[in-house]
Fold:
Amino acid sequence: MTLKVYSATLGTETHSFSPIPTDMDSFRETLLLRPGELAESGMFQLFTSPQGAAMQRAKTQGWDVVIGPTAFAMPSGPVNRSTYEQLRNDLLDCLSSSLPVDIVLLCMHGAMIAQGYDDCEGDVLARVRALVGPDVAIGVELDPHCHLTEEMTVNSDVIVIFKEYPHTDYRERAEELAEMTASMARGEIKPLMSVFKCGIVDLFYTTREPMLSFLSKVREFEGKDGVLSISIVHGFPWGDVPDLGTKVLVITNGEGGKGAALAEELGRELRELRGKCRGERMGIADGLDQALATEGGPVVLSDGADNAGGGAPGDSTYILEAILNRGIDNVAVGIIWDPMAVQLASKAGEGSQIALRIGGKTCALSGNPIDLNVAVKRVIRDSVQTFAGTKVPMGDSVAVSVGSVDMVLSSIRGQTLGTDAFTQFGIDLRTKKIVVVKSMHHFHDSFGPIAKRVICVDAPGVVAADLSSLPFKKLSWPLWPFDEI
Ligand SMILES: [Zn+2]
Structure:
């Protein structure tokens, strides 16, 4: 049977307390394509993988595929109401004019908050269900840093979440999603979703123990005894929503009781891993001491609190300031979001020497701007970096230096994902003692192999690990670390 499939992307990750609001330009800057444009654009990445999986099946399995709009914004503060409603309505209008369909395949990330909407994904899915009716298979791919709500599970059939953090497995998960929804549409399976709320919210790095072992146990349950798929919702700790939290989602072939029991078993086990799944962290001074005491290099210092991927500006200067004050040589720092400095350095041009004010511009947690006399090393228009085979825009960017301290500045905000964020500017990371990356964990995929050692530094910042200072108002149930277990 020929399956007719509608596939679209709408997502961002909202940090309720980020100083950077999200509007249509935020989507335009990251990824915003009209219906059908994705194929020509070739902009396949993390959050378009269900659309990619559908288009692949149009070629190999004769699916009749309608590609709807594609919209994703770099994580930041709540989306303004008119932007969200416009994007949502575009997705629904395109679906409406494509009916009837057998399958709706969406990528939504799963932590979008807009003015007036705590649960954008639940809102979209309820409207999709109302349009297509109860019999159409609705499949959704999410990021583990999502808020999985009842509104979402009630109004969809199959939800598959990236298992890995860094999210390197997005293509495999999209393949599973496409296969399961197709099986459902052909009447071969009846997916039933069961969710267990763990009563905690935490970060779970999957490239190390104990998550390596936990996930291999999860995988052993999949594909047998009626268990179709298991997803782990890490939760996004900086979203002020009633449904914040770590959860386990089990999809069975119509065996709800079994799914609920397995979700609870795994969820209780995961709860006991709280506080154990992220690396050791230390203050800036200790981090620099430890880096200098390490033989060889480069030592990669993660500035996770200024991770743009979590909604931070990416322009804080605490670690850079400490490095300059201590006179440490052979350092690379990036990516610092500073469109104004990029503009000034670009005007001066490669090879020039200029006075430049760097960073510290967006908010109180950005620290002090730093005034330096810098050499402009390299100017690149519309630069990109790479994450797990995906190109991520950095916009016009420059590399400037003071002595052997190199700094990469970008005009599009984004976390440091690939070593090419530095190397495209001629910066040889192998010669560096310290490389400071503004990223919480995704940098591991590219920087891990070259790092002599990785040190997570607790600098001040918008995505600081200490959640207790944030003014949460909406959390609705006891939740560690705010409450005791
Ligand atoms: Zn994520």
In short: The mean pLDDT is 96. The longest helix spans residues 81-98.
